[in-house]
Amino acid sequence: MRFLLISICLLMLSCGSYPKKQNFKLDQSASKNIENPYFSDASKDYVYKATIDVYDKHFGGLLIIKKIGDNNHRVVFTTEMGNKLFDFTFLKDDFKVNFILDEFNKKILINILKKDFKVLITENLNVLKSFSDTEKAIFETNIYNKRHYYFFNESQLTQVIRTKNGKENVRFLYSKINKHLANQIEIKHRNINLEIKLKSITQ
Amino acid sequence: MRNLVYFFLLLTASIQSQTTMSPSEAQALKTLVKAQALTTKTIYSNFTQYKHLDFLSNDIVTKGKLAFKTPNLVKWEYTDPYKYTVIFKNETIFINDEGKKNQVDMGSNKLFKELNGLIINSIKGDMFDDEAFDITYFKLDKTKQVHFIPKDKKSSKYISAFEITFNEKGDVLEVKMIEPSGDFTKIVFSNKEINKPLADAIFTN
């Protein structure tokens, strides 16, 4: 019985929320909405040189993102030589595969890419809770029913962390930020060996 | 009304600038290109690649150098706006992605093999294979253009047509690969040097 109690206590501790584990302080005064500006300019063609490392495989290519309208983005990946590997449309909560090379047409892969790109392109987010840490403002949001924590440093979005069971699952790092363009973006997965690196060549 | 007249004038002008060749003219071009391809031992050229996606405001422009040596050595070296080299050599593709080296064995991949064959043939312009393509020949103002439509269903899933533009000498000026969606990749060659000696060392990463 005592063992059961101890293990339940331990379980509760280990299942504690992500902010609690990180010692974030709850901040009631913060805003209720936040904005991710990095793919929000419909007049811009966002073009990134991309490298994808998945387990021992290394792929390269160009990731092209275009805002077509409100809550509407096209996300296309081509090789450096121009061959299209996949072409997705995000429209509000809908997601459509316009094209995908047979070799990449795997449900599990499409799902991972869909979830990651959704974070990149989602502009306006409702804040569930807000926190503060030394110099950082942190906002808890939901994307596809998963908790995402948005970190702002001096009102600039620098990272997003997706959690699973109160633990970091995927980290999105924005750096070399110039106005509303993140020249470098890294997406690191914890549960699978996957890393996506993006370097802007936006012309 | 006047607009309508202009419209029809423009329409007829654009039709006139691209007319179909007669069978004898088509045969003459084919003979010229094939003869040119046979005597071509090496090609060294600058290229500009335009990736056109309908939803973008502008084409994505990349630039670099192409080297080719018979029978099957090809190197595409992108220098702007990023450094990326891909070498097709025997059964292997060697990639140098800003210093990160990688290689892919084509031996087992039929699609890659076919692609490589197409690349080599399109650089030389010699794709006149009636079994693989439906071929149509056009005359433009100063140039000639041939459209190759793949008959094979598997490749037509990726490329609906190749359009190759030749100058009067039968040299390839431009290769355009059109996807079924209408998006395309266009490669324009400039400062092309034919049969300049190229060392094998050029084709190593």
UniProtKB/TrEMBL annotation, chain B:
Pfam families tied to this protein: LolA
InterPro entries attached to this UniProt entry: LolA/LolB/LppX, OM_lipoprot_carrier_LolA-like
Keyword Methyltransferase (UniProt): no
Superkingdom: Bacteria
Keywords recorded for this protein, A-Z: Signal
Family annotation (PANTHER family): OUTER-MEMBRANE LIPOPROTEIN CARRIER PROTEIN
Name recorded for this polypeptide: Cell envelope biogenesis protein LolA
Organism name: Bizionia arctica
